[in-house]
């Protein structure tokens, strides 16, 4: 395969993704690259991605090693190019959150993708806004299968994912199955609606270990955004059943009224992430009206005048977390609160933690257990 590498589209913990062009066609590609000697996760990803074909999963175009002009040997996955970035980008471009029509559309498409992936006996293990990309036609497609695994009982068990999106059973290091992906879908909806993952109040002041502890052991479920209509809240409650076996499946959720009441929107409406008007807040089918919210807030304030914060209808969105990034090295992990995306962690159930990049030592199971 002859192709030329272009600009960087994004960086993750295991690889860098570039735009590229095929020499024998006009197709633009995305190429996910890491040095060959660090490409264990990329090679696993290629194996899984090559077995999948769905409109809601990023398209696989091949994989190969390549000697770069500087002599470095790289491993590369060639994929369909998604020009509109990730759902996290979509929220950022739209003032911190995705508008309601797109939240419904993208949630439906993520679930269609997961329904397919799960039917193939595969669990994604790292569903989150920054791992869902938007295609040229405006469809949400699940990407980054670097943590994905087959659900075969004999398969090596490894806990993987991003702390704020982890289900309780994953945070406790017990198991990671299809149900854990569904919890992460709920977290992704919260991320789209509010611009922040769940547990933002913990994230902003503490560290990911505290998030894992809270998810795994507190008995709590993520706080539901206060402006959501009851239908949307009910949908999230079905995702956030703490008992994995009580959680709804992708197929069941696709038939939830939250997703059934709105038809698919035209692709033309999606392209370019045309910024939506804040008036969507008043749409009764998804958001509760500001008046309704105000009335309830006033009643609550009368009941408890100490709760002054609740006067501000937008208060529940005002907390923006400092993004966490682990940038450890041989000296051990440290948490960077300033920038970068939510990181993915990979912990072997038995033994020490490994991450995709040898430079980014993230956290060891022993440290985790020690902290907990
Ligand atoms: N097919 C694609 N088209 C366009 N951009 C993409 C594509 N795939 C990935 N990207 C961009 O590259 C970024 C990193 O990709 P990806 O999440 O696959 O890397 P990673 O190293 O596996 O990340 P993680 O830290 O989640 O493990 C994405 O967040 C996105 O911005």
TrEMBL record:
One Gene Ontology CC term in the entry: nucleus
Keyword terms of this UniProt record: Abscisic acid signaling pathway, ATP-binding, Kinase, Nucleotide-binding, Nucleus, Phosphoprotein, Serine/threonine-protein kinase, Transferase
Listed EC numbers: 2.7.11.25
Intracellular or extracellular location(s): Nucleus
Main location: nucleus
Protein kinase domain location: 3-259
Catalysed reaction equations from the record: L-seryl-[protein] + ATP = O-phospho-L-seryl-[protein] + ADP + H(+); L-threonyl-[protein] + ATP = O-phospho-L-threonyl-[protein] + ADP + H(+)
Sites where the protein binds ATP: 32
InterPro entries in UniProt: Kinase-like_dom_sf, Plant_MAPKKK, Prot_kinase_dom, Protein_kinase_ATP_BS, Ser/Thr_kinase_AS
Gene Ontology terms for molecular function: ATP binding; MAP kinase kinase kinase activity; protein kinase binding
Residue spans crossing the bilayer: none
Top-tier EC class: transferase
GO biological process, one term: abscisic acid-activated signaling pathway
Lineage top rank: taxon: Eukaryota
One Pfam family linked to the record: Pkinase
Similarity-based family: Belongs to the protein kinase superfamily.
Designated name of the protein: mitogen-activated protein kinase kinase kinase
Source organism phylogeny: Eukaryota, Viridiplantae, Streptophyta, Embryophyta, Tracheophyta
């Amino acid at each position: 395969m002859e192709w030329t590498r272009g600009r960087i589209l994004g960086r993750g913990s295991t690889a860098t993704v570039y735009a590229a062009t095929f020499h024998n066609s006009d197709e633009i590609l995305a190429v996910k690259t890491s040095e060959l000697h660090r490409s264990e996760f990329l090679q696993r990803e290629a194996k899984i991605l090559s077995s999948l074909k769905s409109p809601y999963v990023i398209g696989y175009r091949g994989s190969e090693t390549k000697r770069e002009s500087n002599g470095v040997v790289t491993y590369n996955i060639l994929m369909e190019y998604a020009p509109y970035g990730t759902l996290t980008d979509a929220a950022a471009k739209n003032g911190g959150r995705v508008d309601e029509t797109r939240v419904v559309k993208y949630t439906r498409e993520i679930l269609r993708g997961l329904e397919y992936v799960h039917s193939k006996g595969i669990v994604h293990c790292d569903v989150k806004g920054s791992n869902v990309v938007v295609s040229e036609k405006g469809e949400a497609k699940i990407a980054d299968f670097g943590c994905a695994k087959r659900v075969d009982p004999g398969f090596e068990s490894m806990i993987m994912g991003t702390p704020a999106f982890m289900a309780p059973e994953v945070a406790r290091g017990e198991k990671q199955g299809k149900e854990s992906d569904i919890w992460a879908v709920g977290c992704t909806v919260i991320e789209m609606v509010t611009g922040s993952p769940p547990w933002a109040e913990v994230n902003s002041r503490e560290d990911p270990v505290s998030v894992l502890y809270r998810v795994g052991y507190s008995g709590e479920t993520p706080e539901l955004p206060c402006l959501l209509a009851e239908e949307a809240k009910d949908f999230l409650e079905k995702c956030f059943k703490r008992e994995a076996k009580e959680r709804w499946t992708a197929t069941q959720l696709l038939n939830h009224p939250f997703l059934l009441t709105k038809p698919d929107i035209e692709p033309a409406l999606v392209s370019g992430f045309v910024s939506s008007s804040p008036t969507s807040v008043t749409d009764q089918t998804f958001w509760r009206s500001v008046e309704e919210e105000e009335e309830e807030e006033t009643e609550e304030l009368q009941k408890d005048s100490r709760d002054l914060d609740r006067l501000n209808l937008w208060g529940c969105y005002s907390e923006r977390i400092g993004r966490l990034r682990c940038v450890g090295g041989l000296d051990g992990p440290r948490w960077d609160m300033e920038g970068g995306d939510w990181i993915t962690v990979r912990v072997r159930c038995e033994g020490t933690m490994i991450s995709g990049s040898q430079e980014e030592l993230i956290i060891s199971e022993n440290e985790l257990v020690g902290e907990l």
